[in-house]
Each structure stands twice: as structure tokens, then as C-alpha cells.
Amino acid sequence: MTALLSGRGLTRMFDGKNGCAQIDIDLHPGEVTCIVGESGSGKTTLLNLLSLQLRPDAGSLYYRTDDGARIDLGLASEIDRRRLMRTEWGFVRQNPRDGLLRDVSAGANISERLMANGARHYGALRDTAIDWMRKVELDHGRVDDLPRDFSGGMQQRLQIARNLVTGPRLLFMDEPTAGLDVSVQARLLDLLRTLTSQLGIAILIVTHDIGVARLLAHRLLVMRRGRIIETGLTDQVLDDPQQPYTQMLVSSVLPV
User: Are residues 33 and 141 in the same domain?
Assistant: First the structure.
């Protein structure tokens, strides 16, 4: 399968430490990839490099467009990078309040990305917002409510709808289930599995929760001290970890 996003030798360090180094990674359509590791392992730095929120000190990053062209993102203009992030990519923040417009309605949060791409018909925008609220299992009767009037789990669903409304091919997610209770987590994970299958998008998730990775990811990357130390199909890595660190990570959170 042809990779949608490919990184080679990606490196970004802070004061000579606490970053990531020599990372090779491929993200494929219809596949969920999880990056796991302890705090300070470099997983968030890698997420920010791949999503163009940080520039690497070294390495290359290539993206394959819808027409099959392979573009070097390191050479892309700032305008092209912003266009990608506004249209073909999405980013779901750990705290949904950081990924939502606080002072506009739920419907306006969803339709704002469409308006940024030229849509102007109010009725069509509202209908699309209502449709996406249904898709993420939010009460569409609350289309005019402000984000602060929703629970944390509902805000996360709203943020997902806001990111998916433009039909992105690639979605980045930073600890999307953090702070949610177990039952809300389960419903959110089920929603993500369904949407991934239906839409055929590539999803990259950073999480410290091995259980989330087990339930959601097709492929798992384990990071330690800024490097990927083990990678493979999720069940393969979790059921038969090869590295001592991965064995410790798995045994500390999964029942024997």
C-alpha cells in the first residue's frame, strides 16, 4: 500500500535533548497508527513534526496528494502548508477547548472550516453542521449551543466533527481520550473506528494509554528517549513485545 505521509530521518531536539531523532515513519490510508511511550519519550514532538507544527532540524517529510503526486513538505511554501492543514488534514487536540472556537455555536464551529474554503450558503452550511452532529452522535437540536454548554466527551465529538467536515485524508490526534471517563472513552473509540472504516482516512494518535492503542490502532510505534524502539502490527507488538522497555510498558498496564 502506498503511504500517504512518509518521514525519513526526522530529527528535532531542544537544547540537544528532549526531542526525537532519526525517525522513519509511514502513514497509510484506512489505517490507525498509535505512538505510545512514557512522558518525555518524544512522541508529542514527533506528532508536531508530522503535522507541520514544528520544523525538523534534519530529515525529510513527503506527502502524496489525491492525484498521486509526491510533494516534499520541506520545500512547500507556507501558503501550501496552511492549505493542507485547512483542507486535507485535521488535528484533534487533547483539550477540546483548544481546538474549538469558544464564542460561537456548535454549528458554526463545524461550518467555519468550510467557510474558510469558500462556502457561503447559510442553509447548506447549517444542514452540513447538523448532519455531522448526527454522525458524531451529538443532539443536532443543540446546533446553536456554545461549546461550553457541552460535556467534555461531547466537546471532543464536536472537535472531531469540526475536523472531519472538510473530508480530510489525514487526521492527527493528541491524547483524544485523556480526561474522559471509561464509558465516554469507549463510545468515542467506537466512533473513531467506525469513521476510519467509512472514510478511509489515515489517523495518527499519540497516547499514553496502551488500552486505547489495543482497541483502536492497526499499527503501533513504541518510543523511548526520542527514538522508535519497536514497531509492528498492534496485536503483534502487545502480545509478543521484543524490547525489554516494551515488555515493561505492556506488563505494567495490561493484565496477565
Answer: no
What is the distance between the alpha carbons of residues 91 and 173, in angstroms, rounded to a whole number?
Answer: 6
**AA identity, residue 174:** D
Report yes or no on 95 lying in a domain: no
Q: Are residues 68 and 186 in the same domain?
A: yes
- Residues β-bridged to residue 203: 32, 171
Cell of 52: 507541520
| Residues 135-153: tens digit of each pLDDT | 888 999 999 999 999 998 8
Q: In this structure, what DSSP letter does residue 104 have?
A: S
Shared domain for 113 and 155, answered yes or no, is yes
CA atoms of 158 and 40, how far apart (whole Å): 29
Residue that has been written with the C-alpha cell 455531522 in this structure: 132
Calpha distance 94→206 (Å, rounded): 10
Strand partners, 181: none
Cell of 202: 489515515
Q: Side by side, which strands form the sheet with 70-72?
A: 17-27, 5-14, 58-64, 70-72
Whether pTM exceeds 0.70: yes
Q: How far apart are CA 94 and CA 91, in angstroms?
A: 10
pLDDT tens-digit readout, 48-84: 999 999 999 999 999 998 888 899 999 999 998 988 8
3-state secondary structure of 211: helix
Written as nine digits, the cell of 162 is 469540526
Q: How far apart are CA 136 and CA 144, in angstroms?
A: 16
